[in-house]
Amino acid sequence: MNEPLLSICIPTFNRANYLKDCLNSIVYQFKDKHIFDQVEVVISDNASADNTTEIVTKFQSEYKNIKYFKNDTNLGVDRNILNIVEKSTGKYCLTIGDDDGFSPESLSFVIDKIKTLNVPYYMINSWGYDHELDLPVVSHPNIEVTEDIFYRSLSDHVQTIKKYTDLVGAFCGLSHIFDRKAWMDFNEKEKYIGTNAIHYFILLSIFKDSTCTFLAKPIIKTRSSNIRWGVFPGLGTIQGRITSTIKLVKWVKDKFNLPISNIKINLYFYSREYWFTFKEIIKKLLSNLGLEKIITIYRKIR
């Protein structure tokens, strides 16, 4: 096929069944030849020990625009993300977690937006779904807006962010659309290996002064309660997650000259993480008591 407009980049590790769901949400949209001809799917398998290879091979037998690369050894999260962008060939890359999925008709929407707006970086809206990606678990998408938002620069957008958590949450998730050449031309990628969030640092560095757009329509279904902290070195404990998050916020604060106190950042995230952990304990207790409906109601009204 000719150079695709869009490379869907999926780093994966030992999540064969979730990856299957993700791929099904993509190939269903390949019924539209207009989509099939402009999209490639690139999978970088970080040496999975499950049946990932078998599942992907079945998809490849039917869809020739799916590329699969399996690392001989586990490269770590950051190097696997670098690897998948390097293996892609599209003008734009759309990265997505292996346990998430695409909303119906989302790819035609993305392609039309890329062609119409022609900006180097797009922020993606998402919607939180249940563990099977069947039903929403919240009443609204991640960001409640009805129209796309255009920014003269990514810096302009970052300056409008008021919540400390949003300085992380808005960019630390894996779902982004970006100009592949700009990513490949950035020559400081190696310095962020080991952060467990290499895309965060690269994207904010590359597109700091570039025009960008937030796409209002939620095109990604995120799977609830499915973060595997154990695969991220140093993030398996509450203390590790707090330390890492604080480092991210302080980095973006300095990068974008945000008027935030380091003391306030520390106090906020320490208190927040322990409160969040307490709530998770309560939810598990309710679930063990067979009171899942209370959890569902809470998620829908929050």
Keyphrases for this structure?
302 residues, nine-stranded mixed sheet, alpha/beta, 18% strand, Spore Coat Polysaccharide Biosynthesis Protein SpsA, Chain A, globular
Describe the structure.
This protein has twelve helices and nine strands. With 302 residues, the protein is α/β, with parallel strands linked by helices. It has a single domain, classed as Spore Coat Polysaccharide Biosynthesis Protein SpsA, Chain A (Alpha-Beta Complex). Helix 1 runs parallel beside helix 3 (52-62), helix 7 packs across helix 10 and helix 10 (238-255) packs antiparallel against helix 11 (262-288).
Question: In brief, what are we looking at here?
Answer:
The chain has helices spanning 16-27, 33-36, 52-62, 77-87, 106-117, 154-160, 164-172, 180-185, 198-206, 238-255, 262-288, 292-301, and strands at 6-12, 39-45, 66-70, 92-95, 101-102, 121-129, 149-151, 176-179, 212-223.
Q: What coarse outline follows from CA principal-axis ratios?
A: globular
CATH C-level name: Alpha Beta
Most strands sheet: 9 strands, mixed
| Strand percentage | 15-25%
CATH topology: Spore Coat Polysaccharide Biosynthesis Protein SpsA, Chain A
Number of helices: 12
